[in-house]
Amino acid sequence: xxxxxxxxxxxxxxxxxxxxxxxxxxxxxxxxxxxxxxxxxxxxxxxxxxxxxxxxxxxxxxxxxxxxxxxxxxxxxxxxxxxxxxxxxxxxxxxxxxxxxxxxxxxxxxxxxxxxxxxxxxxxxxxxxxxxxxxxxxxxxxxxxxxx
Length: 148
Hints:
The chain has helices spanning 5-34, 46-70, 74-96, 116-144; strands at residues 99-101, 105-108, 112-115. The radius of gyration is 17 Å and the shape is globular. The longest helix is centred in the first third of the chain and has 30 residues, at 5-34. The protein contains 4 helices and 3 strands. The termini are close together. The protein has one domain (5-144). Strand 2 and strand 3 (112-115) form a beta hairpin. The chain is mostly helical.
């Protein structure tokens, strides 16, 4: 099956976030309506839900295109994605007034203060999760669709 390898790579990359993000939205809706609790993150959830699957799909297409020359493993390639997403997301969120950088940490929605140590720890854990998800889940879907 050699026809349309980049389309198959895009579909393989879109697979994971398309399954996970509606579950996250369902969780926030459940907490919001059933328990009458509000999280400030709700306001910034819809835009990434539309952008993230497309970004993952394009990132998998870039891996498919660059793999013959770079020979970078899929897990390492996937772990690079948060290194690009965090600065871009922080810049956009700062510009929109969702995120403010303080002396001791970041402030989300003028309500939630997160120390930089927590941001670093969560980011390191996110890198590990991205590596494992890209290596095992996206790698499995790539093999199933004959991308890898």
